Records
---
Amino acid sequence: MTIEIQYVNIRNRLIELKEAIAFFNKELNSERKHFPAFDTAMVMKSDVVIAAINKEDIVGIIGMKKKFFFGKSYIIIKEGYQGLGLGKRLIKELLYHAKNKCSMLYGVIEKDNKRCIKLQNKFGTTNAGTRGDLEYFTIPLDNLGRILCFLIRISFPAIKLVDRIKR
Ligand SMILES: CC(C)(COP(=O)(O)OP(=O)(O)OC[C@H]1O[C@@H](n2cnc3c(N)ncnc32)[C@H](O)[C@@H]1OP(=O)(O)O)[C@@H](O)C(=O)NCCC(=O)NCCS
């Protein structure tokens, strides 16, 4: 069976599609293992949202919430659609739509989420550092972003030191 996935920028249709997003969220199960924080509210507050759509159904979502120069990104794909290349395509779409909105993207991945780490590595992301079980990755979108990514990477040891002192 061949599936035809549409990749649609739904940022301006979030109200109209709220029920479909809530349904996608409700149907998630094992996908939450590495991403328990995902919910409908997170999508509704995003500044970029791209949905992977099979027929009428949302089967994957990538998004980004902007704060100053930074865009915090997330991605989640329904289990039956994982490993088919949707993740790669959604990241390409996010990079295209996030350009001109912020200078860099960042995200947090659990250390044992090998599939997601492999996926991010394909797009020139930098592992800025680790905190506990989490890896922080960054990807610049412009020259300011390159400087910010560098500054974050070199300041990570200090952040970890503060973590240790606080413990
Ligand atoms: C992580 C996730 C977004 C990846 O998306 P995906 O559509 O499954 O990934 P793709 O099919 O595009 O594959 C991308 C790369 O991942 C790696 N990959 C794919 N399937 C894999 C598997 N079974 N085991 C290990 N690596 C795998 C490969 O390197 C692949 O690239 P390649 O085919 O060129 O070698 C998706 O699996 C997912 O939604 N997981 C649950 C939620 C989650 O973890 N979100 C991220 C939280 S930060």
---
Amino acid sequence: MRAVEFQEYGGPEVLKVVEAEVPEPGPGQVSVDVAYTGVNFADLKARGEGYRVPRLPFVPGLEVSGRIRATGEGVTGLSAGQEVTALTDSGGYADVALADAATVFPVPAGLDLRTAATLPTVLPTAYALVHAVGRLQPGESVLVQGAAGGVGTVVGQLARAAGAGAVYGVVSGGAKAAYAREHGYDEVFVGAFTEAVRAATGGRGVDLALDPVGGETFRDSLASLAVFGRLVSFGNASSAPAWSVGQPELYPSGISVGGFSILTLAATAPDELRTLAERAFAKVADGTVSLPVTAEFALEEAAEAHRLMGTRTSTGKLLLRVNA
Ligand SMILES: NC(=O)c1ccc[n+]([C@@H]2O[C@H](COP(=O)([O-])OP(=O)(O)OC[C@H]3O[C@@H](n4cnc5c(N)ncnc54)[C@H](OP(=O)(O)O)[C@@H]3O)[C@@H](O)[C@H]2O)c1
């Protein structure tokens, strides 16, 4: 089978198409004949700096849609030929991918395999940020970094559907700002945002800030919170040193900081992830949320997809077409 792997860390050019053995599912796993695979920012971090890469060579890819090829020992409720969408720990950039049965989901009614490939990472993550961790209440305001990206596109719509009083986004360019405004955001700031947030909220700050960037952006997001505000950290796009927060920052205004990682949750509490995923997928199936596929590449063109996302010009979701 074909797989796209990297044998060293570096730019998009280190992604190589290779011939690989078809993987066989172990106990509790299924193998999937991949139709589409989603491109995530985490794939770029894996390729560039070894994020969650246990050893080289490494086949990236955290999510696929397709048909079940084979089921491993002990798997129940899933069968060969069934159309599914799956969170994979890695290995999605290939003709056949393995996934733990706990993170394999039937394609929701009414959705095709192309749309299904956009669901596994972004939808549960966005749902957790708004609801499970962010605990957004009707009327509250929310500030979202990377508002035009995969997670950002869905968070804006989910926050609006949850009755947010105001949904603010931050992006790196004007075209992204226009896109985010079309996807649930009331106001979108380009670049620096702390003063703009204070101005937009009459000096009060926001109730919830969602940060996938880290470093200075994390600090600025913290400084943008209202009294009793919450910040949820869910990434480190800036590759800054890990943040830490203590009493001096938290006590004065009663603010709190939380975190979320879908891959860690999948490994530690798969039942919680399933609940999140089912609730989140229902929001796509009922039309509350849409995640536009703005660029699609053949599997062999994975490096092009990485270049597009890496130049910070992509919006919405990027997909690789594997065996559509
Ligand atoms: N914790 C979790 O469970 C989880 C799950 C999924 C995704 N994530 C994180 O959520 C973020 C979005 O992921 P995605 O796959 O949907 O990607 P994406 O948003 O479609 O694309 C990457 C995003 O990162 C931002 N970005 C790129 N380079 C950056 C840099 N050097 N500094 C600051 N921002 C940068 C871009 O926003 P601008 O160009 O507009 O700044 C862009 O929105 C990523 O940080 C990812 O790691 C976390």
